[in-house]
Amino acid sequence: MIHTFKEYLWINEEITRVDIIDPDFFSTGQTVYEVLRVVNGKPLFAIEHYKRFVSSASRIGKQLPLTFEQFSSAITSLVIANSTTEGNIELLYNYGTPEQQKNIWLAWFIPHHYPSDDDYKYGVNTMFYYALRTDPQAKVKDVPLRDAANVIMKAKNLAEVILVDKAGRITEGSRSNIFFIIKDALQTAPDSMVLSGITREKVLELARTKGIEVIEHPVMYNNLTPFDAAFITGTSPKILPIKDLEGHSFNVENKLLRQLMDDYNELLNSFL
After folding, report:
1. Nearest one of 35, 33, 26 to 95, comparing CA atoms
2. The whole model's pTM is what?
3. Cβ(128)–Cβ(139) under 8 Å?
4. For the domain that residue 38 is a member of, what is the CATH number?
5. pLDDT one-digit tens code per residue, 17-42
6. What domain count does the chain have?
C-alpha cells in the first residue's frame, strides 16, 4: 500500500498526484526500497542510499535500472513539487510478475515520526520480538513483520521492538539497528546478520575514527547485565538512547553514548 501525506509522488520519471495512483501497484512481484531523510531540502547521504538500493536489488537476483542521476532527480522533483524541505522519502522499485511484464519506479514523502527532545534526553522503551528477516542484507518489503511490529509498538507505547533470532541472539530493530556499550567499547551484531542501515555505517565510521573498539558479535537476549548502555540508529531516530529493554534499564547518560550522539549531529551539520 502507498502511505503518503503529501500531494505528489514520482512514478516512472514523472510527477503525479497521489490520488490517481492505484494503491495495489506493487502488491505482486518483488519490491526493493530505500528510505532517506531530507533536511533543508537536501537528501542525507544520497550516494550511500543509492548504493544500498542497487545492492538490495542484486541480493534478489535483479538489476536496478536506475542511475544515480535518476535517483537524485526523483528526490529533487518531489521536494519542489510538494514544497517540502523536511521529511522522509521512500524510493521503491517493483519488479512485476512475468504476466504483468511491467516494472514500477516510485518515490514519495512518507509519514514520519522523529523522536522528541525528551526521547533523546531520557531515552525510550523497547521490548523483544522473536522474529528474523528472510534476507537481512536486502532491503525488501517485509509487510507482515513491519505490520506486526507496528501493532505491538502502538499497543505498548514503545519506540521500537528489538528482533531476536531462534538462537536467542539480538540482531536489530524492526526498522533500526541496535548497539550496546560495554565499558569503552561498542558491541553490535555483524553485518551478515542485519540490514546495515546508513546511520549504522556512519556510527561505525565515527567509532573507528575516534579509536573506539567495535565488537561485531551478537548480544544474547538473556545476558544484558554486562552492558552499560544501548541505543538504536536509523534514518528518523539518528542515535536514540534506550532507557528500557524488556525490563532491563540502561544508563542514558553514558559518556560514550553522549559523545557519539554529539559527533553524529556534528557530522549532519557539516553535511548540510
Report:
1. 26
2. 0.89
3. no
4. 3.30.470.10
5. 988 776 666 667 888 999 999 999 99
6. 2
